[in-house]
Amino acid sequence: MRGVIAAGSTTTADAGAEILALGGNAVDAAVAACFATAAGEPALTSLAGGGVMIHRNGATGDVTISDFFADAPRARQDDVPGFDFVGVDLDFGPTTQRFHIGRGAAAVPGVIPGLCGAVDRWGSLPLAEIVKPACRALREGVPVDAYQGFACKLLGRILTHTEGARRVFGVDGRSLAAGDVFRSPLLADALTELGQGDWRAYYRDVVGRAIALQLSPEQGGLITREDLEAYRVEERAPLRVRYGNATVLTNPPPGAGGAMIALMLRLLDASDARRHAPDSREYTEQLIAAMCVADESRDEGVAALADRFEAWRARYFELLSAGRPSAPKGPGGPASTTHVSVLDEAGNAAAITFSYGEGNGHVLGSTAIMMNNLMGEEDLHPNGFGRSPTGTRLSTMMSPSLVLHDDGAITVLGTGGANRIRTALVQAIALLERGYDPERCVATPRIHYEDGVLNAEVFARADGGANLAPLAARKFVPFAERSLYFGGVHAVRRAADGTLSGAGDPRRGGAFRRV
Questions:
Q1: Catalytic pick among 37, 160, 337, 423
Q2: What stretches of 383-514 show up as alpha helix (H) in DSSP?
Q3: pLDDT digit string, tens, across residues 27-47
Q4: What is the third-level CATH fold of 238-333+402-514?
Q5: Does the annotation mark 337 as catalytic?
Q6: Is the model's pTM score more than 0.90?
Q7: Which of 143, 199, 215, 329 is most buried, judged by most C-beta within 10 A?
Q8: What is the C-alpha separation between 49 and 90, in angstroms, rounded?
Q9: Domain segments of the chain: what residues?
């Protein structure tokens, strides 16, 4: 067996599986899958967004975080005449939420430097080979499934915001819908060129030039050629935390999500949460208290895990005693984010989470690549738009993670889901440490608590969640079925005996392949 991959669509997973079958390693397969999201998950992410990868070297055991999330441009919106920053209300059914698009909503992207740089650093196959599955899918076309159709409907006002976007994502004057076939030969041509010769030159001269021309301060945007030239993929040591009989490695600061995950796991460990069944009221109470403390401690980062831990531990037990804790409202989002997890036969691991927000409505030149709106994402700017430090890496909840079990097993996982990323991963990791296999871990119901509202999947509860309702300080929201609201955890595992397994999360069109 060459390896396993779990991802957000069959097209995405098949691309990675194809590369594994050719003898590629985990990084080759993960990068191929990420390029293929352009065909299999066209509304969920973009090659002009930002992301994070965690990589494990199977030979040495070394683990590295590759941070290719977006940078805040150096220009300030107050200094840009005709600043193009448009509010758009998206309809979520029971509620609507406002997002911001336009030229001024774009941050300096990092996906192409991140993916191509990873192949240079850790890959084993030529980039030209790695992009082939994506190019073939883009030319032949991929049917839009129900989940992708829902995402296209939700983001329809953005996907048809400009003439360029309508040419890529429009069908007969409307946005893509379930049952349509998505093709993008222009993007296939762009990826083919990217894979030939020097990818850096192509990115600079074609993609970068389009960004600088279309999204500059002169055009109502923020990004300059200097921003693009200054962008660097950053390699970092992972954040490590013990939980039960495992060590969890995840994204460190400036990412916000990893430290919040680590704190929740330490708090659950402190109360020996594993003594309660996962579907019990007692365990749910402990999850809620941990989620509240993590929200309250967000600005402290790793300090909450070190010199401030005892104070937050005391706060956790205080909330448990209170019974129905309130919590600060965390900014949400439709979570147009996806994730890929790969393990190969040599023990190499790669997990990549990446996003473009919801897209800013502008396509870059003739590439058919939608630009990100990460400067218009509320959850990335908790202090308000226009207040983030300029020229710096934006913070993110993205937290691709490795779980190193004491028995020698390795689990690789991650998820999209905006502010639900941290809570979905904590619940998944806690179940893995109980001995759940990836499929059972992914399928188990989840909760999310914020602002006194308890959101809970109750499909496995005979009482419809009535036992949990009193735990909400303000409102209880039961979900009768698995919902994309709770993220899409795609996980793969190598057991201590070398057996490979995994699961794609059905909440977000997940697929799993064994090669």
A1: 337
A2: 420-433, 438-443
A3: 999 999 999 999 999 988 899
A4: Glutamine Phosphoribosylpyrophosphate, subunit 1, domain 1 (3.60.20)
A5: yes
A6: yes
A7: 215
A8: 20
A9: 13-235+347-380, 238-333+402-514
